[in-house]
Specification:
CATH superfamily of the largest domain in chain B: NADH:ubiquinone oxidoreductase-like, 20kDa subunit
CATH topology of the largest domain in chain B: Rossmann fold
Strand content of chain A: under 5%
Number of strands of chain B: 9
Largest sheet of chain B: 5 strands, parallel
Largest interface: A-B, 47 and 50 residues
Oligomer: heterodimer
Strand order of the largest sheet of chain B: 2-1-3-7-9
Strand content of chain B: 5-15%
Number of domains of chain A: 1
CATH architecture of the largest domain in chain B: 3-Layer(aba) Sandwich
Structural class of chain A: mainly alpha
Shape of chain A: elongated
Helix content of chain B: 25-40%
Strand order of the largest sheet of chain A: 1-2
Number of helices of chain A: 8
Distance between the termini of chain A: 39 Å
CATH class of the largest domain in chain B: Alpha Beta
């Protein structure tokens, strides 16, 4: 008897709705653009010679950075709104572990990832540990948005809409501190991106789950047991 | 101005270096001579007054009593609160006591220089004397103007005094009580090297080709983009020049806690706490990102190894059962 013979009938369940997937990929793309342009703004590495009036490298980088920042901010806000109107897997309590089942699930997931448990705990949406990590990531998003808006508010024209965010400057501890936090935040998010990419790969291949496909298609392929739980929304206890 | 009565001004120095006095003495529009001889009656100023000792103390006491509620008080230097105020005493009285008495009776108080406005160098970590700004030492002052910078520009102070004498009120202030005419704009936004910044042309090291061409000093740690002051417009020493104009990056001296936050002066970002001045945030960040990726690669390898091991064991036991 071989492993292949253990095949059981799997079910496709619609988990990630269009707004969830769209905001996910908009955040991915904008974060990538923001990181590349941000690294340049923090340490301009492209040599430019000749007349200053003939070039606009920093200016272009900053413009792209600002546009990407708006896309990013709106995507994050949109995703937060969807936490209250979306399906059960998009809800806020998938992130904050408020139920006992999810609190216990955090430990079970850690035990699985540290090779203490052989079987991965079954959750349809985010596993509880991932939910907690994404809560921290959303906190980081908020910090990046606040420091970013503080920095751009300082540069904004007196009557421009952005100048209304100048109240953020003292909250960040001044502009220089805002710069520092913004820079540290970028690296934390890039570190998270490395982790996120790998864990998605890991869960997708090693656990043989459909997680990697699901962020494209929206569907997860689940065992009948987990799928039944999904239909009854037992995760929402 | 010519018809206005000469208002009284008293100038107090506490934890300071007299740098703002030096700067004020170089005011050129109007000159300090015009201000002292024609515009104001400066009744107390330790550095420039003729009287000394008890005579000096007496002239201060007389001035604040005679013109109670009408005089302008200028405070230079921070005010120590530690050891009951013993770190700075004049004529046996603490700076705190003198400042409270003088500011309470003033029509307007000007905190001149970063030390008086925000605590400055004496208040920098670890602040051994408990140094405070005027606004912290004498809370509740409604007619306080902060004029930070190290030192504050003499022409800005002269402009403020002329404004006050002419119109009888203070100019518009921002949320840190700084006059907007002098602190309403970032240095960066009026900088003569701004076109090089936008173009992407930077000085990479002292005296290099870019430095000699007057390229932007952003990469040399210039704090112009995070500092509010009108240096590029008004200039120093009668408008002769200003730091960035002569090739030195702005050190952000007019900002709150500049000695703690703007250092290292020649680097773009502050130090990472606990890692010393030479740690590079970008190198650490890249290291962490690569480290995370490597850790996960190892984790994946363990998983794959375990699974193939389990698979091999299973196949072996299956073969045993079959035989």
């Amino acid at each position: 008897m071989s492993i292949e013979a253990e095949h059981i009938h799997m079910e496709r369940v619609y988990v990630w709705e269009v707004p969830v997937r769209l905001s996910h990929w908009l955040i991915v793309v904008s974060l990538l653009v923001l990181s590349v342009t941000g690294l340049y703004i923090g340490n301009p590495f492209i040599p430019v010679s000749g007349e200053a009036t003939q070039h606009f490298v920093m200016g272009t980088m900053k413009s792209i950075h600002f546009v990407a920042a708006m896309v990013f901010t709106l995507s994050v806000l949109w995703r937060i709104v969807w936490m209250f109107v979306g399906n059960p897997y998009a809800r806020w309590n998938e992130f904050l572990p408020v139920s006992k089942r999810r609190l216990v699930g955090i430990w079970n997931t850690i035990a699985f990832y540290t090779f203490l448990h052989r079987d991965s705990p079954a959750f349809v949406g985010h596993n509880p540990l991932a939910g907690v990590v994404y809560t921290v990531v959303f906190g980081l998003f908020a910090v990046m948005i606040a420091t970013g808006f503080a920095l751009s508010a300082a540069n904004a024209h007196m009557n421009a809409m952005l100048s209304g965010f100048q109240f953020l400057i003292p909250l960040c501890g001044g502009l220089q501190m805002a710069r520092f936090i913004h820079h540290v935040g970028m690296w934390l998010l890039l570190g998270f991106a490395a982790h996120h990419f790998w864990s998605a790969f890991l869960v997708g291949t090693v656990e043989r789950s459909s997680l990697l496909d699901s962020i494209f298609s929206g569907y997860k392929v689940l065992t009948p047991d987990v799928a039944r739980r999904a239909r009854k929304h037992i995760e929402e206890d | 101005m010519e018809t206005a009565a000469k208002p009284t001004l008293v100038w107090l120095e506490f934890q300071d270096c007299a740098g703002n006095t030096e700067s004020f003495l170089r005011a050129s529009r109007p000159t300090v001579a015009e201000i002292i001889l024609d515009t104001l009656s400066i009744d107390y100023h330790e550095t420039i007054m003729a009287a000394a000792g008890h005579q000096a103390q007496q002239s201060l006491a007389e001035a604040i009593e005679r013109d109670h509620g009408k005089y302008i008080a200028v405070i230079e230097g921070s005010i120590p609160s530690g050891a009951g105020g013993a770190y700075c005493t004049i004529g046996g009285r603490s700076a705190l006591e003198i400042a409270q008495e003088v500011c309470d009776g003033a029509a307007a108080t000007v905190a001149i220089g970063t030390c008086a406005a925000f605590g400055g160098l004496p208040a920098a970590a670890p602040n051994p004397t408990g140094a405070m700004s005027v606004s912290d030492a004498v809370p509740g002052l409604t007619n306080l103007v902060n004029m930070p910078a190290c030192p504050a520009n003499g022409d800005n102070l002269a402009a403020l005094i002329v404004h006050y004498v002419t119109f009888g009120r203070l100019p518009d202030l921002d949320h840190l009580r700084r006059p907007l005419f002098a602190y309403g704009k970032l240095i960066h936004d009026a900088c003569e090297k701004r076109s090089h910044y936008d173009a992407g042309q930077y000085t990479e090291e002292w005296g290099d080709e870019g430095h000699r061409h007057g390229y932007c000093l952003y990469k040399m740690g210039c704090k112009g983009p995070v500092t509010y002051q009108n240096c590029p417009n008004i200039g120093w020493n009668g408008g002769t020049n200003w730091p960035v104009g002569c090739g030195h990056p702005c050190i952000g001296c007019a900002e709150p806690s500049f000695w703690d936050r703007m250092t290292p002066f020649y680097r773009h970002l502050p130090e990472i706490p606990g890692l010393g001045p030479h740690a590079s945030l970008d190198k650490i960040g890249l290291g962490v990102t690569v480290g995370v990726a490597a850790a996960f690669a190892t984790h994946t390898a363990v998983h794959v190894a375990r699974r193939s091991l389990a698979g091999a064991r299973k196949t072996a036991s299956d073969e045993e059962n079959e035989s």
